[in-house]
Amino acid sequence: MKNERLEQLRQMLEETPNDIFVRYAIGLELYKTEDFASAIQHMKMLASEHPSYCPVHFKLGQWYSENDNIEEAVNWLTKALRIAEKENDPKAINEIREALWLLED
Known about the structure:
The protein is built from six helices and no strands.
């Protein structure tokens, strides 16, 4: 079965290839379709191209945590926390700290 949402997002990306939100949404959709390797590769590329975009780092941390790769999860969440602190985003800081705290258990 073809993922219509993913196809729509890819069409949108053709129209606006530099739209970070569309690119982020494609990564999320790939993960939803259980194409984990492609989703992670896509998000890592996005993180490399946009190193100050906190949501992509946070999402990678969550995904690695869900897949029991705690070391990578902590790595990505720590990057996200540094970005959120630099941007002075209290909501993001709290969410990321909570995610890191949950990994300590």
